[in-house]
Design a protein that fits this description.
The protein has two domains: 2-179, no CATH class; 190-301, Rieske Iron-sulfur Protein (3-layer Sandwich). It has helices spanning 2-8, 13-16, 18-28, 33-46, 51-57, 66-86, 90-115, 120-148, 152-179; strands at residues 199-203, 213-217, 220-227, 230-235, 249-253, 256-260, 267-269, 275-277, 286-291, 296-301. The chain has 306 residues and is α+β, with helices and mostly antiparallel strands. The protein starts with a helix and ends in a 5-residue tail after the last strand. β3 (220-227) and β4 form a beta hairpin. The chain has nine helices and ten strands. α6 (66-86) runs antiparallel to α7. Bound molecules: FE2/S2 (inorganic) cluster. Residues 238, 240-243, 261, 263-266, 279-280 line the site of FE2/S2 (inorganic) cluster (FES).
């Protein structure tokens, strides 16, 4: 197929779209790594672990907060552009534009909080995504100021410049979310990879007491923790970005036993995998366990119709 394309000189659609190549190169470019790392560190230091950080990640709703907030701002930018093209209602255009500018603050706060806990390849793309969106915000703020001082034509021109910058930001945001899977649930496939019913996992006597270890069940790795005669089992790959939970710390949060991911500190309740602290927003798949008379531990996914 490839040889045929070379012979005929035909190029695939992907080859004809240079933007795909550019974003791939952006992921690999190391030129901005120093400021990126410094900024990410400063953000993590400023927005400390706790309620505010969890809120900005979207932990209370179980979904990242940034995408719906960004959609709201983009909707305002689009509505402004439509009102500007039709020139039907300058006052409505000003109102929608001002709403988008106000909404940009929580959108940016949620975005930078998520960004500060990503892989460096994702942060490189996210950095340019943020610059594009900040440029859009600057254009739109200038646009609103011009409109409020009666310079409608200049305001509309700056508005269209803002739309261009926001379009670039949106494109890179799509790359981050869908190509690089930032914000996606990285443990979603786990329960689909385990057939229905109970499965033999390992022998109870081979497990250390009070220290999480990993055991393989078919295609997936599990965190297994023995405490007394009981056993707790969660998917091992963290739902945030697939970090190895069995290497994490065990803590007690308000008297509840939890495991902390070693990569970005997501904290999950051991009993059922619920998210206690982000950046993860999706719960960690958990497993029911039972111990056979001969000491073999059996597991099956919890919260699934058997
Ligand atoms: S991989 Fe990021 S917190 Fe676990």
């Amino acid at each position: 197929m490839v040889e045929e394309q070379v012979k005929t000189g035909r190029r695939s659609l992907k080859e004809m779209l240079p933007t795909t190549d550019l974003t791939d190169r952006l992921e690999r470019s190391t030129g901005m790594d120093r400021p990126i790392r410094a900024l990410a560190k400063a953000i993590r230091k400023t927005i400390k672990p706790g309620k505010l950080r969890d809120l900005l990640h979207g932990v209370p709703t179980g979904k990242p907060a940034h995408p719906p907030l960004a959609t709201f701002s983009l909707g305002c930018w689009m509505a402004t552009a439509i009102l500007d093209v039709t020139r039907s209602d300058p006052r409505a255009a000003r109102t929608v534009l001002a709403t988008g500018i106000v909404a940009a603050a929580p959108t940016a706060a949620a975005g930078i909080t998520d960004w500060s806990a990503l892989h460096i390849e994702q942060q490189r793309v996210g950095f340019v995504h943020a610059i594009a969106n900040m440029s859009a915000l600057a254009f739109y703020t200038g646009s609103l100021l011009l409109r409020l001082t009666g310079r409608e034509a200049g305001g509309r021109a700056l508005g269209f410049a803002g739309l261009g910058a926001a379009g670039l930001g949106g494109y890179l945001g799509g790359h981050l979310a869908y190509r690089q899977a930032a914000g996606a649930n990285h443990a979603e496939s786990v329960t689909h990879l385990v057939p229905l019913g109970w499965h033999n996992l390992c022998d109870l006597k081979d497990l250390p007491h009070g220290r999480p270890v990993t055991r393989r069940l078919g295609y997936i790795d599990l965190l297994v923790l023995r405490s007394g005669d009981g056993v707790t089992v969660l998917a091992d790959g963290c739902s945030h970005l697939a970090g190895p939970l069995h290497q994490g710390r065990l803590i007690s949060e308000d008297g509840v036993a939890c495991v902390v991911c070693p990569w970005h500190g997501s904290t999950f309740r051991l009993a059922d995998g619920a998210v206690v602290h982000g950046p993860a927003t999706a719960p960690q798949p958990s497993f029911e366990t039972r111990v056979r008379r001969d000491g073999i531990i059996q597991v099956r996914p919890a919260h699934r119709i058997q």
